[in-house]
Structure formats: C-alpha cells, structure tokens
C-alpha cells in the first residue's frame, strides 16, 4: 500500500503563485511516474502535468506551471505561477507504483485526497 499526503493549496489573487507538494509513503518499491490532476466544479478531472521518463503539461498551464520530483523523498511538486481564476480547482496527485510479480511487473495508481486551489481577487 502507498499513502499520499498533499499540501500547499490555498487562496491567492490572480497573478500569484502557489507550490503544491505530494509525499508518498508506505511499502514503496518503484514509483514509475507522478502526476497532478485537477477538477473544477462541474468539470471532468483533467491532467495538469506529469513526470516520469519525460515531463508533460496541459496546454493551458505551459510556461506557468512546473512539475518536479524528489526521488529520495518520494515527493512530487507543482510550482504554479501567474495563476488565473480558471486555475481554480481541487488538485490531486497521482502516483504510478510498480511492483515485481512472478510474471514481470504490476503497476497500480494511487490518488491523493485533493487540495483546494482558489484564484480570486
């Protein structure tokens, strides 16, 4: 089992910055990728950024958000700059955890509890 604890959400004015953190703990073998998703009220959950063998960003956050990870701490970060009201959402981290099996490997996704980000003047 892997547990995820998110932190860093809050309220900020347009143009401001926030940094989200998501720390994984438990019986960790290999974290193959980490990602941030968000879900605004009435909207589907969408991928914001991911980091694994490469990094990927949603077009709406390119140039403003930066995803990074600290493998020693099993932690993923999301630095959010130049925030806009449309960035308001609950942000979730997702971790892909890979473990060995007798047939090869097995990967399971784990989700954080979510942290609210509100951008408003």
How would you sum up this structure, described in words?
With 121 residues, this protein is mainly beta. Helices cover 0% and strands 62% of the residues. It has strands at residues 2-7, 10-12, 18-26, 30-39, 46-51, 55-57, 65-70, 75-80, 89-101, 104-111, 115-119. The strands form two sheets. Strands 2, 4, 5, 6, 9, 10 and 11 form a seven-stranded mixed beta sheet that branches. Strands 1-3-8-7 form a four-stranded antiparallel beta sheet, with no helix packed on it. A hairpin with a 2-residue loop joins strand 9 and strand 10 (104-111). It is elongated. The N and C termini lie far apart (41 Å). 26% of the residues are buried.
Count of DSSP strands:
11
**What portion of the residues fall into strands of 2 or more residues?**
over 45%
Question: What is the H/E order?
Answer: EEEEEEEEEEE
Please state the structural category. mainly beta
Q: Name the overall outline.
A: elongated
Question: What does the average pLDDT come to?
Answer: 96
Rounded to the nearest angstrom, the distance between the terminal CA atoms is 41 Å
The helix fraction, in percent, is under 10%
Largest sheet: 7 strands, mixed
**Radius of gyration, Cα only, in angstroms?**
15 Å
* Uncertain spans: none
Number of helices: 0
């Amino acid at each position: 089992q892997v547990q995820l604890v998110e932190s860093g959400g809050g309220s900020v004015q347009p143009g401001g910055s926030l940094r989200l953190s998501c720390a994984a703990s438990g019986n960790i073998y290999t974290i193959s990728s980490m990602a941030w998703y968000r879900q605004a009220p009435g909207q589907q959950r969408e991928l914001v950024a991911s980091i694994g063998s490469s990094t990927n960003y949603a077009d709406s956050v390119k140039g403003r958000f930066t995803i990074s990870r600290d493998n020693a701490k099993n932690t993923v970060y999301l630095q959010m700059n130049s925030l806009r009201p449309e960035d308001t959402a609950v942000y979730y981290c997702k971790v892909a955890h890979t473990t060995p099996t007798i047939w090869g490997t097995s990967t399971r996704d784990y989700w954080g509890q979510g942290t609210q980000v509100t951008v408003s003047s």
